[in-house]
């Protein structure tokens, strides 16, 4: 119950761009190097002319993603901007339908309605468009008790993220745990999860809320 309450409170406490900048200035080497393990091979597999978006706070990862010819950095309006970044609401992205080949999400889904944000991402990604989402791990103590941006906002389990992605019309390929805690030379309790997914051409139709057809009166 405490963890559920904490998630409800922290979901409104998005760190500012300045806070995130301070966090990475003191932890950049360890955090970026860990996330780079999945980000670098993911980016390398994208087409040479892929249009890529970094969503949330992708600033520390620009050197990894910057080799792509077309890229855009979209930061949530409530977070504040950085030079070269575009401010937007997660459910109203200033992008045309099917205008992105890939999207990298970090410090993003945990501070908004993940369901609605993923639906909007489905709209702007091309069919089979690639998605890499990094989210706080629900089962890591660091996600609830730490003092990092990964300990703020809503947390996710692997099964919960798979459900949200599949409900929004994505196929999940695999989930990679990262940022482990160290204890007596052991790596335990991954702090974040990185999920690789791609957009399906058709989203599932919800079973509820579909209006029944109106009967046509017979002619006499």
Order of helices and strands: HHEHEEEHEHHEE
The CA-CA distance between the termini, in Å, is: 63 Å
Give helix % range. 25-40%
Main sheet summary: 7 strands, mixed
Task: Could you tell me the CATH topology label.
Answer: Rossmann fold
What radius of gyration results from the CA coordinates? 19 Å
User: What fraction of residues sit in β-strands?
Assistant: 25-35%
Low-confidence region ranges? 1-12, 212-220
The CATH class is identified as Alpha Beta
Number of helices: 6
Please state the second-level CATH architecture. 3-Layer(aba) Sandwich
Specify the structural class.
alpha/beta
Number of strands: 7
**On the 0-100 scale, what is the average pLDDT?**
84
State the shape.
globular
- Strand order in the largest sheet: 3-2-1-4-5-7-6
Number of domains: 1
What do we call the CATH homologous superfamily? Vaccinia Virus protein VP39
Helix-strand blueprint:
Blueprint: H1 2-10, H2 17-44, E1 51-56, H3 62-65, E2 70-76, E3 85-88, E4 100-106, H4 114-124, E5 125-136, H5 142-145, H6 158-167, E6 170-183, E7 186-199
Parallel strand pairs: 1-2, 1-4, 2-3, 4-5
Antiparallel strand pairs: 5-7, 6-7
């Amino acid at each position: 119950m405490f963890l559920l309450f904490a998630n409800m409170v922290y979901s409104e406490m998005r760190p500012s761009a300045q806070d995130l900048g301070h966090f990475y200035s003191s932890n950049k080497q360890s955090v970026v190097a860990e996330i780079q393990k999945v980000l670098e091979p993911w980016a390398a597999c994208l087409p040479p002319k892929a249009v890529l978006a970094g969503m949330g706070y992708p600033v520390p990862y620009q050197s990894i993603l910057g080799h792509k010819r077309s890229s855009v950095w979209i930061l949530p309006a409530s977070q504040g901007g950085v030079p070269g970044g575009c401010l937007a609401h997660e459910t109203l992205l200033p992008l045309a339908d099917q205008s992105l080949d890939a999207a990298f999400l970090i410090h993003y889904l945990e501070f908004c309605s993940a369901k609605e944000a993923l639906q909007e991402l489905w709209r702007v990604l091309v069919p089979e468009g690639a998605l890499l989402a990094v989210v706080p791990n629900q089962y890591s103590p660091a996600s609830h008790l730490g003092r990092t941006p990964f300990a703020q906002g809503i947390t996710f389990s692997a099964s919960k993220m798979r459900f949200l992605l599949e409900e929004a019309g994505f196929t999940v390929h695999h989930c990679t745990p990262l940022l482990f805690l160290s204890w007596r030379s052991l790596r335990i309790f991954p702090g974040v999860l990185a999920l690789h997914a791609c957009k399906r051409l058709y989203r599932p139709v919800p079973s509820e809320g579909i209006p029944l057809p109106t009967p046509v009166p017979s002619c006499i």
